[in-house]
Write a structure and sequence with these properties.
- It comes from Fervidobacterium nodosum (strain ATCC 35602 / DSM 5306 / Rt17-B1).
- The protein folds into two domains: 2-11 and 108-379, no CATH class; 21-97, no CATH class.
- The termini are close together.
- Strand 14 (356-361) and strand 15 (369-370) form a beta hairpin.
- The chain is of the alpha+beta class.
- The protein contains 13 helices and 16 strands.
- Strands 9-12-1-16-13 form a five-stranded antiparallel beta sheet, sandwiched between helices.
- The protein is globular, with a radius of gyration of 24 Å.
């Protein structure tokens, strides 16, 4: 199958790299991300930079020092810039210091096939009887205390070399048009209080409309190696419990694939709507508007999810939340909360899980916020 993917909310898939403060030159409402590969090839730049490094590493003096270097070498900053974005200030009006970079190859952003496969895999588990088997296993209180990380998955889905999903191949996407990549602020909102959170800044793939007929989308190829799967099944080289005929059928038939994705999506959307409904506004107009905007967003994609013929929605990438990446659904039992606490989810209250949600500010207005990671996927052939 060939799939077209387009963002309906900002998407972020991190490379693990950061754009540091010394890599940016801030001029009022514009921030220039400098191209140091080009700068290093400029005569005398390295000498000037090293001579001023102590000043450059001071946030309050960095921009003045960089401006002096550009002026001394008679360089136009636009000629040595990777991209420009509108300067973002945090709530204390401090200048942005660090930005998480989108995954890239030769400075061209793309969606890794592994990210897409992971998102599809979670939805396929949600939509099939595998999910019921996992849920029953987690619901068996006698066994939960003996569970170790990955034990359930290896038992039900099989180790990687035994899993049906090893026969699912997903290519990396085509490259994202750089015009739709920009830096945005991510805010963590506590659902039950107004506790301040440290904002984060990311390179995001934005759901902007094109103005020149160019599509803001990428394409990937998804293939299920059904012949190899059948052969492995005959030779018992695959976990028998995950040899589910419905899953193989879903991965080889377009209509069943789309229907399964929509079924799983309805559940994720329902959970997100339930979570947003618990956002307390404390008579704060911004929080009231944010809640309204998020509710409208999920109402819209829920309606579209039913109406679209050859398309479905999918949530992928970073900062997309616990429920989009797991088989869990509310309410969590006390036993499950204690189990999760052993793997990094500390101080969980089963009546208040999750306690936060993340939003992206597309502009300073609370009318222009969106959740992270939602894309529309269209099956082309």
């Amino acid at each position: 199958m060939r799939l077209r993917i387009e963002p309906v909310s900002p998407v972020y898939i991190g490379s693990g790299e950061k754009i540091g403060k010394f890599e940016m030159l801030i001029r009022g409402d514009k921030t220039y991300v400098l191209d140091f590969d080009k700068l290093m090839s400029k005569n005398n730049f390295v000498e000037y930079f090293v001579a001023n490094i102590d000043i450059i590493l001071e946030p309050s003096k960095k921009d003045i020092a960089l401006e002096k270097i550009f002026k001394a070498l008679k360089m136009n900053v636009e000629d040595y810039t990777k991209f420009v974005f509108q300067t973002i200030m945090d709530e204390e009006s401090a200048k942005t210091l660090q930005i998480s970079k989108f995954i890239h190859s030769a400075n061209r952003r793309y969606i890794p096939g592994t990210s897409i496969k992971g998102a599809l895999r979670t939805m396929l588990i949600k939509a099939t009887s595998l999910r019921e088997k996992m849920t029953r296993k987690f619901g068996d209180n006698n066994s939960v205390n003996d569970i170790r990380k990955n034990a359930i998955e290896s038992e039900l889905v099989g180790f990687p070399q035994q899993s049906i999903f090893k026969f699912l191949r997903v290519s990396d996407s085509t490259f994202i048009d750089s015009r739709y990549i920009n830096v945005k602020k991510v805010e963590i909102i506590h659902l039950s209080n107004v506790r301040a959170q440290i904002p984060q800044f990311i390179e995001a793939w934005l759901p902007e409309n094109n103005t020149d007929g160019q599509s803001n989308s990428v394409e990937v190829t998804v293939e299920f190696k059904n012949d190899l799967y059948r052969l492995a099944l005959e030779k018992r080289n695959i976990s028998r419990i995950c040899a589910i005929p419905e899953l193989a059928a879903i991965l080889t038939q377009k209509d069943k694939f789309i229907a399964a994705m929509k079924k799983a999506n309805n559940e994720v959307i329902r959970i997100e709507k339930e979570k947003i409904s618990k956002l307390k506004d404390f008579s704060d107009q911004n929080r009231q508007q944010i809640k309204k905007v998020l509710q409208t967003f999920y109402d819209d994609i829920e309606a579209q999810n039913e109406q679209l013929q050859d398309s479905f929605f999918l949530r992928l990438g970073g900062h997309t939340g616990f429920y989009s990446k797991t088989i869990f659904e509310k309410p969590l039992s006390g036993e499950l909360v204690r189990f999760l606490g052993r793997f990094g989810y500390r101080n969980l209250n089963m009546n208040e899980f999750p306690i936060t949600t993340k939003i992206v500010w597309l502009s300073p207005s609370p009318n222009e916020v969106k959740p992270l990671g939602w894309v529309k996927v269209t099956v082309l052939d």
